[in-house]
């Protein structure tokens, strides 16, 4: 079986094992990212939040990863509807949003730590 360690040795580079999500300081975000970040922080008080413009900087497509107690016990569709409702105004100017909603309890966000 081909392992990640073997792939690293063959490639001669280090491949990051995990991505760490976090609540980023708003000064590191673009204007569009800040708007989305601030609205989600205000509404959900998330323990983990990442907002990223993945459109190449033009602000037309964002990816959001959020973990909050506000989603506990809610079906996935309801969780996404809550996020969409908060970001309704931002949807007018963007092409798309990819939202990943995590729960604050293991195993859902144990990979974030």
Brief account:
Helix content is 33%, strand content 18%. The protein has 113 residues and is an alpha+beta fold.
Offer a few descriptive terms.
alpha+beta; 4 helices; disordered C terminus; 3-stranded mixed β-sheet; 113 residues; 18% strand; globular; 3 strands
Structure overview:
With 113 residues, the protein is an alpha+beta fold. The chain contains 4 helices and 3 strands. A 3-stranded mixed beta sheet has the order 1-2-3. Mean pLDDT is 76; it is low at 13-21 and 107-113.
Mean pLDDT: 76
Number of helices: 4
Which parts are unreliable, with pLDDT below 50 for 5 consecutive residues or more?
Answer: 13-21, 107-113
* Strand order, sheet with most strands: 1-2-3
Give the distance, in angstroms, between the N- and C-terminal Cα atoms.
28 Å
DSSP E strands, number: 3
Rg on CA atoms, Å: 16 Å
Strand % is 15-25%
- Provide the structure class: alpha+beta
* Backbone shape: globular
Name the helix and strand elements from N-terminus to C-terminus, one letter apiece. Answer: HHEEHHE
Q: Main β-sheet: number of strands, strand sense, barrel status?
A: 3 strands, mixed
Question: How much helix, percentage-wise, in residues?
Answer: 25-40%
Per-chain topology:
Layout: H1 4-11, H2 31-44, E1 48-53, E2 61-67, H3 76-86, H4 88-91, E3 96-102
Parallel strand pairs: 2-3
Antiparallel strand pairs: 1-2
């Amino acid at each position: 079986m081909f392992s990640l360690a073997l792939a690293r040795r063959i490639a001669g580079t280090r491949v990051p094992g995990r991505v760490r999500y976090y609540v980023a300081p708003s000064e590191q975000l673009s204007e569009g990212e800040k708007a989305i970040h601030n609205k989600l922080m205000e509404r959900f008080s998330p323990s983990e939040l990442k907002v990223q413009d993945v459109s190449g900087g033009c602000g037309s497509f964002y990816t959001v990863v959020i973990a909050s107690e506000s989603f506990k016990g809610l079906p996935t569709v309801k969780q996404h509807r809550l996020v969409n409702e908060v970001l309704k105004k931002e949807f007018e100017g963007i092409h798309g949003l990819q939202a990943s909603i995590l729960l604050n309890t293991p195993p859902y966000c144990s990979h974030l730590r």
